[in-house]
Specification:
Length: about 230
């Protein structure tokens, strides 16, 4: 557009990513001498608009995260209550949003599954440990499948990942406290032990099956039975 000092205009153009069509309209509306100032003003307006959009998006994300944390921790509710398992699982998944950008998450929830009488915060810690274990196995890339179903009076939750097969020697010790295959100092080896303890507390059971590209942790919890330590 025959701008006398294009190097003064270029930074604004690069930062604001103004579409070419808008530049053509802008150049037609102002003189060549006034174009650098016009572009800078236009770019500044766009930046402010995008910042406002970012603030709105961030505010919505913060609200979602606070809601998820509130549901995850059950901090304003009684210790034992009727738990909606799909909602409990989705609240827990929300805590891992930063790690699931490259993960294909597949949810298959049984609509006939009734609420489970349980300690909500403890079940969320079960889902958290199983999801974290799955993401670690997949290195945050792959397919994570979580399903629920009702069999008789038992709720079944399965957390499946398509990571590598677990070595049989590891599999036989996987629920042992302080057992871990991760580097020293990066894990305590209590995640799956906690899963087993909390599931047992609810008169349930947990099992794992692993083969190439399919490792599944299955949690079984009675609908109406609760067992204390």
């Amino acid at each position: 557009h025959n701008v006398s000092e294009p190097w003064n205009v270029a930074p604004s153009l690069a930062e604001s990513r103004i579409p070419i069509a808008m530049l053509d309209d802008l150049a037609a509306a102002v003189s060549a001498g006034a174009l650098p100032s016009a572009v800078a003003t236009f770019a500044s307006s766009l930046r402010i608009e995008r910042m406002a959009e970012t603030v709105v998006d961030s505010s919505e994300r913060i609200f979602e995260l606070i809601s998820a944390i509130r549901g995850y921790s059950f901090m304003d509710q009684a210790p034992v209550q009727d738990i909606d398992l799909p909602q409990s699982i989705e609240n827990t998944l929300a805590m891992f949003r930063s790690r699931t950008a490259h993960v294909d998450i597949r949810l298959d929830f049984d609509p006939e599954l009734p609420p489970v009488s349980a300690y909500g915060s403890e079940l969320n810690q079960v889902w958290s440990a199983l999801i974290e274990n799955a993401l670690d196995a997949m290195h945050d890339h792959g397919t994570l499948t979580i399903s629920t179903r009702l069999t008789g009076q038992t709720a079944i939750v399965e957390v499946r990942n398509d990571g590598p097969e677990i070595d049989p020697a590891v599999l036989s010790r996987i629920f042992e406290p302080f057992f871990t295959t991760k580097p020293i100092g990066t894990a305590l080896g209590l995640g799956l032990d906690t899963v087993q303890r909390f599931v047992n507390k609810h008169s349930g059971s947990v099992a794992v099956d692993s083969k190439a590209r399919s490792t599944c942790f299955q949690v079984r919890i009675p609908i109406n039975r609760l067992q204390a330590y």
